[in-house]
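Field reference: sequence -> structure
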Amino acid sequence: MRANKANSSIEPSTSLAQLPLALAVIVTMFSLATVAEAAQRGGGGGGHFSAAMSGNRTPAIVVNPGSNNPGGKGPSGKTAGRTTTGDNNTGGRDRPRRPKWPKYPIIVGTPPVIGVATIPAVSGAKPAALSLGNPGGSGGSGQQFRRLGSGVPPANERRYVPDEVVIQLGSNLAPQTIDALALRYRLNRIESLTLASGTTLLRWQIPDQRSVPSVIRELETDRLVMAAQPNYIHQTQEQPAPDAEQQPADPAIPGDPGQYALAKLRLPQAHALAKGDKVLIAVIDSSIDISHPELVGMVVMSYDALGTAEKPHAHGTAIAGAIVAHAKLMGAAPQARILGVTAFGAAAKTAEGTTFAIVKGIDWAAAQGARIINMSFAGPRDPALGRKIAEARKQGIVLVAAAGNAGPKSDPLYPAADPNVIAVTATDADDKLFQGANRGKHIAVAAPGVDILLPAPEAAYQVTTGTSFAAAEVSGIVALLLERKPGLGPDAVRKALTATAQDLGPKGFDPQFGAGLVDAYRAIVSLAPAPETLGRASPTAARQ
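Structure field:
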């Protein structure tokens, strides 16, 4: 026992190398902690520190852990976790080195850290906004979502396709997500349209006997659906004359009674100043006969929103003629250019178009650079159409619409009743209001629309009546204004038309005539000081 005790004692001069392995490890760990604490007190920065060997017998070991560096490199650009020595760096390359155990008592530096990289904290991070899954993934969309209001039609509204719904979704929903949505609500996809606003409009069929309102209510419970509504039906606004009056004619004289609108609107005087040169006017209507002598070369582009290759129709042809006719007739803007949009198909007595086709047409027209969009049709309040109209107006497009032919007892018709639109009513040769015209506070101005002589398909002419043609004349006059002052916006155009109109009803604005009969000449003059040509005839003389 005594011998064992004597043998177990350790002299102070005993070297580290002579200690048992376990005890050597303990001493080493204690040395590591001591050096780390000393390094912190010494202010070593940037993730580096140095430890001098006792007696300078061995070069110092420098460790670069790459603190706060996602790439694993420290400020010096050397890779984290590699040790370098001043005498062992051949060719300038960093080489890993394991510390040697010396024969003398030392303070051991922090052992190298291999492959450590820290992720820097993000300051000011905010919680993620509510989204619809992951963009491009099976979940669909990262787009922020906002419900656009209920699209369930009023209880007594039936002016819509009985087995279709129109749905608006985020444009970056994955196709499989949209397919799953259609399957979930038992709907068949017909067509879709990605709008310039960054959303997708879809037209889906209800294959069973469920009602449109009930399907919309179901869809509105789904968080993916921004909006759902009926595919509303709109109609062109004309009252064709008897067939005998639509036979081919030869209106060779400018003074033909069917062209009384020229004098009423003071277009000859206005054309001395502007003819709408190359201003683009989109006509959202039925198909136009582009080969008619009055229209040859005036329709620069056409778009079929129906996809049914409709034959030229009387209404669309007449609307284009009211704007740009230039052979035997004279349109309001004979040098403007037409973008023909076929969104209305022939029906029994008129032409009909749906929400989806009309929105497609407006979207296309805006993309082609239309400055004016003529909408000579009317129907129920249509949320999807209203959103598209608002979007077009924000782009600086002037939108003109027919007030409607449903009579004085009718509710306001759309799009004329939309605040983003210039609503036009119709008058006759005696400046009396067209009896079938709608009334309302939304009416902006009036223009001739009763018994107007206009082109018809197959080189024919027709005498026709309706607020449709009054709206087309005003669209042409807007083109004159934009030729004179291209920078005019929708508000400035409205002001020029209403401020210079001839008051026909009660003093000031009224629900029958709005501001009154449009005066193209005065509207142009109101944009700038009158040039020399304007002084040659007084306004009174010009009206004679």
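Note: The domain at 160-235 is CATH 3.30.70.1140 (Alpha-Beta Plaits).
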